[in-house]
Amino acid sequence: MASFHRRFEWFYGLEENYVYPTISIAEGTDRKEISRILGGNGITSEEMTVSQAGQKMTRYDDAIGLGEDSGLVFTVEALSSVLAVPGVLRDISRNGRCVSTSFSIEGVSSFHYAVRGELVAYEFDVEDVVLPLRNSDPRWNATWSESPADFDGDEISYGVQLLALTERIMGLAPQESWFSNQLETIFIPASSRSENKAYWDIP
């Protein structure tokens, strides 16, 4: 297997293209159901890359690309963080699991994990390791947050370690092709989640 650094080196080029993504992987659902949860019913999807979606976005909408890889569904947002909203994670994970991780223009990385409609981990501004919301939660494996042997701790500011954490949990690592290939992309109103306070509860 390629080294940790080589497998994820594509991530360092996203910022050059003004992409500060939220990446998610979900099981137990499909693209149609995720689109419905996000409010995409009745909205025409378009085929475009993540960069193209980011260029087309306005302050009034969020662009979400949907795809499938190895039997799982993934979403990629160029600039927004809809899949980091607790209520969205809970809804998408009703019949399985969902992981999302966000990288902001301010250099803040965050990680989120839900299982069957419940939040298991929700860490904003990750600086070291991700911990579950409840101690000894059986749905969280403490070894998941251990750094790879060839990982340089200074790189955690870039959030690359969160890509490896996503792979450990879901068995699938985010791929460069998710950004370079065209995805089924929907545009939803940017205010559709912020106006619902219940979506932001972290029990």
Report on the structure:
The protein has 203 residues and is of the alpha+beta class. It is 20% helix and 25% strand. It contains 6 helices and 8 strands, in the order αβαβαββαβββααβ. An 8-stranded antiparallel sheet has the order 2-8-3-4-1-5-6-7, sandwiched between helices. A hairpin with a 2-residue loop joins strand 3 and strand 4. The mean pLDDT is 88.
Number of helices: 6
Instruction: Give the biggest sheet.
Output: 8 strands, antiparallel
Q: What is the tally of beta strands?
A: 8
Task: State the separation between the terminal residues, measured CA to CA.
Answer: 39 Å
N-to-C SSE string, H for helix and E for strand: HEHEHEEHEEEHHE
Helix content range: 10-25%
The outline comes out as globular
Structural class: alpha+beta
Rg: 16 Å
In short:
This protein has six helices and eight strands; from the N terminus they run αβαβαββαβββααβ. It is α+β, with helices and mostly antiparallel strands and 203 residues long. The chain has an eight-stranded antiparallel β-sheet, sandwiched between helices.
Main features:
203 residues, alpha+beta, 8-stranded antiparallel beta sheet, 6 helices, 25% strand
Sequence-ordered SSE layout with sheet pairings:
Layout lengths: L3 H5 L13 E6 L3 H7 L8 E3 L1 H7 L4 E9 L2 E6 L8 H7 L4 E7 L5 E7 L2 E6 L36 H11 L6 H4 L2 E7 L14
Antiparallel strand pairs: 1-4, 1-5, 2-8, 3-4, 3-8, 5-6, 6-7
